[in-house]
Amino acid sequence: MQPYHELLLWQTAMDLAEAIYRHTRHFPATEHIGLTAEIRQSANAIPAHVADKYGVNDSTPDFLQALTFAQHSLLQLETQVLIANRLDLLPPESFAELSRHIADTYQLIQAFFNSLAPPPA
Prior knowledge:
There is one protein chain. By secondary structure, this protein is an all-alpha fold. The protein contains four helices and no strands. The protein has helices spanning about 10-25, 35-55, 60-85, 90-115. The protein is elongated and about 45 Å long. The two termini are about 30 Å apart. The model has no long low-confidence stretch (mean pLDDT about 90).
């Protein structure tokens, strides 16, 4: 099994987290303990969940649970980015870039989950 940092999913989630930091750097100081912190925490959680359970005791159910947690964090992040956009904290180009990163990460989580989940009975 390859190391988690070689997974395309983990790399894409890391790219998303990096983009989040770049695009929230100029949020108002009044948001540093609010929306900025929440957005960054959600973004950080996605690759962390993937890394946390990947390859640990080869337990597919544990890794599927980690993918579910990563997906929850991603959906929280998407909502927080939408809020930031509605509050005009993100320029249109930034919102578009983050939305693409979010969509790409979501597709990879789904593909990974579908490849590991047992077929329905």
